[in-house]
Amino acid sequence: MSTTISSRSTTTLDWVGATLSLACAVHCLGAPVLLTAVTAFGIETGNERFETFMVYSVVAIATGAGILGLRRHGSLQPVLLLAAGASAFLFLRPAVAHAWEPIVTVGGALMVIAGHYRNWAMSKPCEVQSG
Q: Model pTM?
């Protein structure tokens, strides 16, 4: 029994995953400035919960997109990029000093974005060239 994975489903997951990863990187770079300004006014933030939600969302979408893409195009390259980025979020980021978190997070986000892009590019149907 052959399972056909639609290009649309992998494209949607890759777009959502890349966008979420980019949002994570922007959040990580902008959060210190924003939090400093916000806490100066005595406003409490739920930043840790938001970060946890973002990390698990990025990892879940990357996992789903990676599996669908692998089944569609059979290449491990996007899966390895997605796995490296997800590993940076899940394992490396909590283990490094606070000052290194933005660097690890942006690096992980770039790997996830690259993985989603490669997955999307490899999942597109081949265009037939006329002439």
A: 0.68
